[in-house]
Every structure is written in structure tokens, then in C-alpha cells.
Design a protein that fits this description.
Helices cover 20% and strands 22% of the residues. By secondary structure, it is α+β, with helices and mostly antiparallel strands. It has one domain (9-41).
Length: 45
């Protein structure tokens, strides 16, 4: 599956910085802009 060039990727912190996560590669993943939004909206707040 490939994304059209206009689709954006964003870095996502696996362990959020707000609870002690860092910016190291092992704590980051690239997500499609829409998927990143869904991931954040699905978290229980």
C-alpha cells in the first residue's frame, strides 16, 4: 500500500512526552496524518 505524495506523515511518540517519553528513535513511529489523529482521539482521557 502506498500513499499519494500529498499525504503527510507525522512523528508519533509511543510513550507520550507528557508522561516521560523521549525523542529517541525507539520511542517514535511515523504515522499517516489521518492515522495519527485517530490514534490520539481514541485514547481515554
Amino acid at each position: 500500500m502506498s500513499s499519494p505524495p500529498q499525504d503527510l506523515l507525522e512523528k508519533h511518540h509511543i510513550i507520550p512526552r507528557s508522561i516521560g517519553g523521549n525523542d529517541l528513535d525507539k520511542n517514535l513511529e511515523l504515522l499517516h496524518l489521518h492515522c495519527h489523529d485517530i490514534k490520539h482521539r481514541s485514547k481515554i482521557k
